[in-house]
Amino acid sequence: MTALREFVPREFVPRDRDQHPPAVTPIYKTSVLRGPHRPLISLQNSLSEVTGPVFGHGDIGPLDNDLILNYAKTGQPIGERIIMHGRVLDGSGRPVPGVLVEFWQANAGGRYRHRNDTYVAPVDPNFGGCGRTITDAEGRYAFRTVKPGPYPYRNRGNDWRPAHIHFSVFGTGFAQRLITQNYFEGDPLIGRDSILGTIPDPAARERLVAKLDLEAAVPLDTLAYRWDIVLRGSRSTLFENRLEGN
Amino acid sequence: MFTPNALGYLAETPSQTAGPYVHIGLIPKQAGFDIFANNLGESPIGATTPGERIRIEGRIFDGTGSPVRDALVESWQADAAGLHHATPTPDGFRGWARTGTDFESGLWSIETVKPGRVPGRHGHKRMAPHISLWIVARGINIGLSTRLYFADEEAANAEDPVLRIIEQPARRQTLIARREAAGRYVLDIHLQGENETVFFDI
Fold first, then answer.
1. Is the C-alpha dihedral spanning A20, A25, A30, A36 positive or negative?
2. Which of 135-174 (B) contact A at CB < 8 A?
3. How far apart are CA A192 and CA A215, in angstroms?
4. Between β-strands A160-161 and A151-152, what pairing exists: parallel, antiparallel or unpaired?
5. Strand pairing partners for A183?
6. Which residues of B touch A129 (CB under 8 A)?
7. What is the pLDDT of residues A199-244, one digit of tens each?
8. Which of A221, A210, A220, A181 is nearest to A84 (CA)?
9. Which residue of A lies nearest to B72 if distances are taken between CA atoms?
10. Where does the pLDDT of residue A7 fall: very low under 50, low under 70, confident under 90, or very high at 90 and above?
11. CA A45, CA A12: separation in Å to the nearest integer?
12. ipTM value of the model?
């Protein structure tokens, strides 16, 4: 049991919203009716924002970061075997250890194991498409999977998603909560994607592209890609010390 | 030599939508399959967690007033004594949960305990009991942060430092869950339009 009052939680640096997509981005049609029109109300951090759930190895299973084995029924999934790895850092470049990273993706043919996906490409009986891990002391995460395929979706008449993996990341505070997607170096669909295109800054878009990492590959077995994740940084200024007795 | 500490900061990784199949990764049972021994976020409390048992529920509406049936909602709250806990307490309190809106009705719900009052920022009064909510879905480019307050906490709500920074009193009402029955609170969230819910930049 860890009561957070025993610690000195730190305030997060305000989010730079210019790095992120705006709420309403007509190129991605669903956002037009689901994005708020009114401005967000800026909230200085209280305990409700600087605290958040922390997960341990007791929360996850030993195969949870191996998508090649974690849903294997009659054999292994079909597709390009890859390792995806990187570090979770904060805005100061410090590693963020001990945080939960979750990921999900389509199979090699671009089909998701989801009751609402009706794409003609078949499901792979040996591939679930999800996993999770906890960053190590240096903030590193890694998982093994097959490279997802592109798939079409109803947006513009002939829109196809580039190959991508969805990521969900926790930090140490609920205000750091982030969901994003990463893409694969060299994919020609990247420059045509309506969802990546919701991010206005080309340099910010580039930061979602995983790089081929031959050094981390396993020869004659598995290729590797590397992608680092940066969460919001925290201020060094303490504010907790005056909370008691208000 | 003076060195400004803003230099060298890394920009945050940009957000992207969670997409329509967010359930695969975060609630695989709702996607239609079973894979993990431990499904995270099924309950924020344990069998022996002290406090008043409550159910919070609601629907999320888009700009046409139609329910959003593929959203994911996460909640984060203090315990009945007003304390946050990073890891589960011996009585099973975690304070964090996640749930999906129903594919047919669009309804989401969480069974929890009513949170106590939490200290506000320095110099401010205690906050009224509240639950932080974070909403992602297809069409939502960056997760939306809001809070759920309780209609039967009128006095505490009136002095809540966060509700009070919302300039228009009518907009404060969008955060207050109505009490439908003993222990049952309903909060409908409107992403856009006339009754648009207040969302925060936390």
1. positive
2. 136-145, 147, 162, 165-166
3. 30
4. antiparallel
5. A164, A209
6. 24-25
7. 999 999 999 999 999 999 999 999 999 999 999 988 755 444 444 4
8. A210
9. A179
10. very low
11. 7
12. 0.95
A–B interface: beta-carbon pairs under 8 A: 288
CATH topology of domain B22-190: Protocatechuate 3,4-Dioxygenase, subunit A (2.60.130)
Residue with tokens 């957070």: A4
Do A117 and A129 touch, CB atoms closer than 8 A? no
Catalytic pick from A161, A183, A205, A225? A161
User: Given an 8 Å threshold on Cβ–Cβ distance, is B201 in contact with A232?
Assistant: no
Q: Which residues of A192-210 are buried (b: 16+ CB within 10 A; e: fewer)?
A: ebbbbebbeeeebbebbbb
B9 and A70 within 8 Å at the Cβ level: the answer is no
Residues from chain A contacting residue B193 (CB–CB below 8 Å)? 37
Our CA-based measurement puts residue B1 at a distance from the nearest CA of chain A, in whole angstroms, of 20
Q: What's the whole-number mean pLDDT along residues A25-31? A: 98
Work out whether strand A234-238 and strand A100-104 pair parallel, antiparallel, or are unpaired. Answer: unpaired
Q: Is B82 on the interface with A (CB under 8 A)?
A: no
What distance in Å separates the CA atoms of residue B176 and residue B153, rounded to the nearest whole number?
A: 9
Q: Could you report the per-residue pLDDT of A102-150, keeping only the tens digit for each? A: 999 999 999 999 999 999 999 999 999 999 999 999 999 999 999 999 9
Phi, psi of A198 (to 5 degrees): -75, -15
Known active-site residue A34: no
In contact, A161 and A193? CB cutoff 8 Å: yes
Domains of chain A in start order, with CATH, are 53-230 (2.60.130.10)
Confidence bin at B121 (pLDDT 50/70/90): confident
Q: d(Cα B79, Cα B101) in Å, to the nearest integer?
A: 24
Residues paired with A29 in a beta bridge? none
Is residue A212 within 8 A of residue A227, CB to CB? The reply is no
Q: Do B76 and A51 touch (CB under 8 A)?
A: yes
- Model's pTM, two decimal places? 0.94
B106 Ramachandran zone, left/alpha/beta (phi>0; psi -120 to 50) = left
What pLDDT score does A14 carry? 93
**Distance from chain centroid for Cα A16:** 18
Among B192, B175, B98, which residue's Cα sits nearest to residue B139?
Answer: B192
Half-sphere exposure of A230 (CA within 13 A, CB side): 21
pLDDT tens-digit readout, A87-104: 999 998 999 999 999 999
CB atoms A243 and B136 under 8 Å: no
CB pair distance less than 8 Å for B28 and A128 = yes
